[in-house]
Amino acid sequence: MKLALCVAVVSTLFGVQLAHAACPNDAVFLVLGDQIRGYSLRANGATEPCQVLQGPHTTLMTAGATVIDRKKSFHVTQFLTNGTIDIFSRKAEGNEAPSRSFMFDTNDLVSIAVDSHLNDFVMSVRPSTAGVLVALANTSGPVSNPIHITDPTISQYESVAIDSDDNLLVAGYDIQGTAIIDTFGTSRSITAPPLLRSITGPQTGLLSGRGVFFSRNDMSIAVDPRTDELFVYNTSTDLTQIQVSVFAAKANGDVAPVRTISGPATGITGPGLPGNKIAISSDGRLFVAEPNLRILAFAPGARGNVAPSQVIEDSTPGPVTFGGIAVRSGGGGQQNANDDAQ
Fold first, then answer.
1. Neighbours of 142 (CB within 10 A)
2. Beta bridge partner(s), residue 289
3. What single-letter DSSP state applies at residue 293?
4. Total tally of structural domains belonging to the chain
5. Which residues make Cβ contacts (< 8 Å) with residue 238, sequence separation at least 6?
6. Do residues 59 and 48 lie in contact, with contact meaning Cβ atoms separated by under 8 Å?
7. Which residues form the signal peptide (predicted)?
8. HSE of 169 in the Cβ direction (CA atoms, 13 Å)?
9. What residue numbers bound the domain in which 264 lies?
10. pLDDT tens-place string over residues 181-224
11. Is the pTM of the predicted complex or chain greater than 0.85?
12. What is the C-alpha to C-alpha distance for residues 94 and 73, in angstroms, rounded to an integer?
């Protein structure tokens, strides 16, 4: 009887029923300020989270962007908490402390990517540090004089990703609000990466945004871990147009997307708190974070004004706003499908 009572108390700690085992390998995760919640990729309709990370030991307070590395660990940015990035193990659960943390002397961290060498690429939108800050693998504690990658064509930074070649994609807007997605050759040099490709121009169909200091994440990018197709969530400044454009692998120049997902049937709404709005599974499914603990999933190859193939709805109480989303599937993380057993 006492044991059952203890389990009940632990299960409702912090106002949510905590799972007692990590999610399966194929799972999708929401980062919600002071917590992370995970759900099976097979879930559809009302469901309870299979993994919840929450509590004072986690140090999560303003967490938003997240990515899952090839060892299946979570890398989570704290948007306003002294530039902190926390790393949690795959099975982190409940009130568990991060296995490692590092800090930049800045904040306003809106996006993060990790390459196959486990180097972290963290986007800051604070004017004094705007661009991508790099922490080399296994960095811990304060990062003094970090590598700082900037893009001279971008005035307002929005999102980062890493492709299968370990090159860095940087998305943002120029001072006129024109969307730009540049690829830098970080596989060749992290300290001075050359510009390899640039997607911008009227043929791209990308919507104009805000070329000014951060107000919200109107653009979010993700790379399909198997095909290297580039998915771009973007909105108009007044949020009357919202779309996800899909570009061919290594697309370059003023090129049209191979398909676009947009329209009222999609259910895709405007941006949330800092963090990736979209993530891609290893089988090409698109996952979109939405308010009220909802996740929309679209089948591989989806296009046009199409309804999601799955809608994952958390049936337990929790935040109504949302931050980042990340997918773990096919033996790898959000941006690299190569597995590396821990």
1. 12
2. 295
3. T
4. 1
5. none
6. no
7. 1-21
8. 28
9. 25-328
10. 999 999 999 999 999 999 999 999 999 987 565 556 789 999 99
11. yes
12. 15
